[in-house]
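Record 1 of the preview.
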Amino acid sequence: MGKSAKMPKKKCCVDKPRCGRCPLRALAEGTLPPGYTVKKRRLVKVA
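->
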């Protein structure tokens, strides 16, 4: 079975290196779910 994509965390925990579910990392990699973005290190829905 393949890896299933998990939803990013709601808030970045600012660990170095970035954790696997970091919203900042997902934003940089382009793997954020549709309808979401990151503002002030928090995952938010786009209106």
